Model the fold of this input.
Amino acid sequence: MDILDYDMVVIGTGIAGMTAVLHANMAYPGKLSIAMISKTHAMRSHSVSAEGGISGVLYPEKKKDSFELHAYDTIKGSDYLADQDAVQVLVKGAPDAIKFLDHIGVPWSRDDRGDIVQRPFGGMSIPRTAFAADKTGFFMMRSLYDEILKYGNTEIFHEHFVVSLIQSKGRVVGVVAIDLATREAKVMTGKSVIIATGGASRIFRFSTNSYSNTGDGTALAYRSGFPLKDMEFVQFHPTALIPSGILITEASRGEGGYLINAKGERFMARYAKGKMELAPRDIISRSIITEIKSGRGIGKEKYGYEHVLLDLRHLDPEIIHRKLPMVREITTKMLNIDPSKEPIPVRPAAHFTMGGIDSDIDGHVVDSNGRAIAGLWAIGECASVSVHGANRLGSNSLSQCSVWGKIVGRESAKRAVDMKAEAPHREGVMEQSDISMKEIDRLLSAKNGDDPYAIRDELFDTMDSCFYVYRNMPGMRNGLKVLYRLRERYKKIALKDKGAVFNTNLRDALEIGNMLDIALVIGECAIRRKESRGAHVVEEHPKRDDRHWLKHTIAYRSGNGMDFSYKPVTITKWQPEERKY
Amino acid sequence: MRGSRVAIWLYAGMIGVPILLFVFLVLNFVSAPYSAIGMRASLALAAMGMIALGAVGMDEVFLHRREGAFGEVPKQLVLPAVMRENTKHIPGKGRIITVRIKRFNSTTKNFETETYRAKADELQTVLGALLDIKAYSDPTLSMRYSCRMGICGSCGMEVNGKPVLACETNLLSSLDTNGEIEVQPMHGHPLLKDLVTDFDSFFEKHKSVGANLYRKDEKEQYEAKRIYKQTSGQTEKFLPYSFCIMCGLCLDACPVVNSNPNFVGPQALSQVYRYNADSRDQGAANRLVGIDSIDGVWGCEFAGSCSKVCPKGVDPASAIQLLKGDAMKGFFEKGDVDEE
Done:
């Protein structure tokens, strides 16, 4: 087995991971060796699917916008579970991130004077979402990737799957990764290790996410004993195309689209009169499901799912052409629907993991006592700082990835440069990597056993039925029972593909293991929170309960079980109030 | 020619057939509870195949003796199709469609065409069918995929001979005249396994042309204190070329890349034009020097197939012709980002 030594190891190459790599290189040009690891090709991470835009106060005077207002919108959107000091870091860093991306080539949509255009988004009190048509994430990814290619000290490991974190004397000193092309194991050590592996919404069948979003980094951290925070909060995006779950951007409503039920009514008038279709996502998703449950949805005969309609017929076709080209491309190719002529069938789908690896305001991963772990950071969707609390506002995720990508990129680079070279103990490293490789060998050598894909199917069904937009106690109890049974079955799976070259059967099995771990944490956290806040709604406890539940859930592995604790929410100036739109 | 045909038949007869037999046996014993009839039928089929191919092979050996030539062993030879039936319930609805997959075997370096069945309703995509086959029929099948919405660029392949992204290709509207689908990996890239090709040299080419926004004052660029002025009209000039998702389909279609692997290719060249045409960029002249060669823009014979197959409407062919013009007449640097 090869041992490769680097200054920095970055797991995940979405917007957060690549921003960190770029800023580390910029801060110390030519001084750092960096391993940038992706289980896909680096430029294909799920961030490419981000469509609508990135939030940030760009033109405060002209737009009468301010950091205060952006922060307030975000905190109110979070149903007051966001840490307010972290939100202030987010809003202050966001405009710089947009300017920086402008300077490395993102083709922002602009006006005739040369300024960047901003559009309205859900829960934002004024238009502050910058965008590049409706492929914002894709353009950010391409610009970051192209810029990183300038730096020869950065080695890009395409299609390498990280199977474990290596620890030594209380710090994380490296990772074990498997090269998908050859199944060869590589140990990569780093003075700084960053987890930037994205969300886990693929544990649901009906999901907007790429197939790759299986929460691998979050599961790695959990299995290594690091706590996860607020995992019960899963965002369901209101407008996912059926039956595939492909995201139809919130920008389609930002540009003026309506949501209508079977009777043709703009039903949001019943639920959020002030904001209508631009209320936050949790509220709209609940409204859609309520409409469907009340018999005002469209039946499942045609597409297999009950749904409502997203109506863009009244929009100027020129707006669709210039600002929402991907919406038209997707609906035409997938359903043969021209959005100018026909409304689009949509339904809420799992979209974003508000929870994640517990990390502090500087991006450090913390242990169960709240102490920062030396040398380990988490950024992007896999981390919970927390700026999104119980519900993220649309377009705040790209800002989060950019802002903490920069903070952690620079900090972790500084640590790597300052640290006196002390290579981790070779024997200890090998011992730990041998343990994880034995696990792989076991998977490959099992002759008869359970089919991992059957387990995955049952996981999908369980998550979709027991942990969807509305949750209830008996449903969650049953769901958890099934999940524990699936985890037992998973221990006895067998793989058909024993090959070494591009063995995706093995990769899928590893992913399914990660998905089961994350699903269990989500289930256990959800059943404990006996209130309704943001995206987490329990039918038996329909109200927000600040007296008992204005706190973060912390879940961590303890022996073979799970332990829980709670952490206060940081409140600086915005006291919790009733959330009305 | 004669010699290589001899080699093909020899190898098919003497090596291929035992492998074929072995595959059948393994299939019967391992993959699923096959019936005794199926077992006997496949054995009989394998035996017949062995006799037939062996006979032809011997004939070729005699021919070879008469003509006294023995050519090189071909790198890839196509074995007869192996029929593999779904044995498990396929979820979903729709009709059953036959999907033939030309799989590259990473060990033998040969193609093996296997036939599967998939369910397809009117919304089923080619990728959807492949994922069903992997989950419910044959977990050993490998292909790349991720976003399933045409933006990550993973799933470029050939469907009935046409280079497409599998995720945005509707299955029922792609059937051939027999009502079937044939899927194979892209050309123009080295093969890894089944439908998966090796992208290393493709990425290397993209990197080699300096496809990133260049500013003379890097400090100012990175500090990014202000927003560059760029009107919507100026954005429009390069925007169509910026939609490249690096899927590699243009290389699959390009006749030049397929004959001269050193040709930097339509993807990289289109990205040179994308940055050269960006009013914020100041690196155009340098990039032009790099591609002013027979492995650069002058390698292009303007077949135009790259633009025809691009799933995102990037027009590399036009980009390359525009670059040829710029390379001949020299280039005036842009990069003024303060115009009001």
Q: What stands out?
A: Confidence is low (pLDDT under 50) at residues 1-8, 30-38, 49-81 of chain B. Chain B has three domains: 2-70, 83-197, 200-329. DSSP finds twelve helices and eight strands in chain B. The radius of gyration of chain B is 25 Å.
